[in-house]
Amino acid sequence: MQGNKVIAAALIIIVIFFAGVVLKEAKPVLFPFFLAIFLSFILSPILDFLTRMKIPRAVSILFIIITSFFIIYLLGLLFYSSGKTFASEFPKYGHKISSILSSIQEQLKISFPKWETVNLFGQIDINKIGGFLLSSIGPFFSFIANLFLVFIFIIFILAGRGNIKAKVEKSFSKERSSQIIDVIQKIDTQIQKYLAIKTIVSLVTGILSTVVLMIFGVDFAIVFGFFIFILNYIPNIGSLIATALPLTIAVFQFETLWPAFWILIILGLIQMTIGNFIEPRVMGQGLGLSTLVVLFFLFFWGWLWGIPGMILAVPTAATIKIVCDNIPPLSFVGELMSKG
Hints:
Layout: H1 2-25, H2 27-52, H3 57-89, H4 91-108, H5 117-123, H6 126-140, H7 147-159, H8 163-171, H9 174-216, H10 221-231, H11 237-254, H12 257-283, H13 291-326, H14 331-337
Helix pairs in contact: 2-3, 2-7, 2-9, 2-13, 3-6, 3-7, 4-5, 4-6, 8-9, 9-10, 9-12, 9-13, 10-11, 11-12, 13-14
């Protein structure tokens, strides 16, 4: 008996290893497919609404695909152009960092006999950092070039919605098929609700934060607003990182702490109001993902697919937890993934 458990554990480790290798090597195809699955969950309620309005299904799918394609493409183009400007203007912040550190050193009369802070920053090739940022933006948004493939997947996923019920009814007895269909519908509804509400909440948070940053005149407000939108998918950790990025730039841009202080207060209020009051009321009972689980998925998917994988990490974890919570034999997995 003990030997069977050891064999089973070894087989699980081997399967996970090979699954990781396959996922890593098949990224060019699987990432657009995964992205299409998540987008289809977000777009499905719109398709259902248009269908209820007696609009032909084919016309509804075509309208959704065209509209979504142009929205995502324009947003990606806007961020890419803003990101290129950010990377090209990054070197000027190196000089500001040096001047601020020199000022602090003079005011506090601190001397650094061995590690001269100002000289240390002076030795850093800021142009290389800017070039690195500029080259990193391309891979981050390489999926823009694959939008056609993503939307091909979405077309077939949306067109195939509703066929699962008929296939299950043909494959199982009436009682068993009814149980399976009920579980599938519950999973589908919960994933749709989570992704749709999370996307809307993240979008509102990103837009409000962008407006605040623009009012204060912070450079690259659109870039930081997009980061806030994306990072808002990551519970707790994401909001901290999203707030820290524009604050750091604000400190060095204005060379005083007061604008950064007020930005921190306002962005913090937006995050707290939406995250602690509005989102729970709209979402209902939260998924309650463990922070350790979130970190594991971030590192795992980051290792697999880089930054795009990290974007999909938490939605993937949430989807797995929803599926496990609704399937009794797997409920223990959902419990292990919960906060406590």
